[in-house]
């Protein structure tokens, strides 16, 4: 993760679409751009910031 990305995890019971990838953020989380869209979802309580695990990176293909 760098200054331009944030690792997000959906809050339990929430399904949050990822418009860039055309799917939903997995329960294990994903790195996403630090943009107004994602920051708004965090502030709304749909997502929370987290720390990526090795398993999450393998499942989503994220390397950062």
Topology:
Layout: E1 5-10, E2 17-18, E3 23-24, E4 30-33, H1 36-43, E5 47-49, H2 54-60
Antiparallel strand pairs: 1-4, 1-5, 2-3
Describe the structure in your own words.
This is DUF2635 domain-containing protein. Pfam families: DUF2635. Residues 45-64 are annotated as: Disordered. InterPro entries: DUF2635. The protein is an alpha+beta fold. It is built from 2 helices and 5 strands, in the order ββββαβα. It has helices at residues 36-43, 54-60, and strands spanning 5-10, 17-18, 23-24, 30-33, 47-49. It has a 3-stranded antiparallel β-sheet with strand order 4-1-5. The longest helix is centred in the middle third of the chain and has 8 residues, at 36-43. The N and C termini lie close together (5 Å).
Give the overall pLDDT as a whole number. Answer: 89
What series of H and E elements makes up the topology? EEEEHEH
**Which range does the strand content fall in?**
25-35%
**Tally of strands:** 5
Low-confidence stretches: none
Key features of this structure:
single chain, 64 residues, alpha+beta, two-stranded antiparallel sheet, 2 helices, 23% helix, globular, DUF2635 domain-containing protein
What is this entry, summarized?
This is DUF2635 domain-containing protein. By secondary structure, the chain is an alpha+beta fold.
């Amino acid at each position: 993760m760098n200054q331009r990305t944030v690792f997000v995890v959906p809050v339990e019971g929430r399904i949050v679409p990822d418009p860039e990838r055309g799917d939903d953020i997995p329960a294990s989380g994903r790195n996403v751009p630090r943009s107004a869209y994602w920051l708004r979802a965090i502030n709304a309580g749909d997502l929370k910031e987290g720390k990526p695990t090795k398993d999450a990176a393998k499942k989503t293909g994220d390397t950062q």
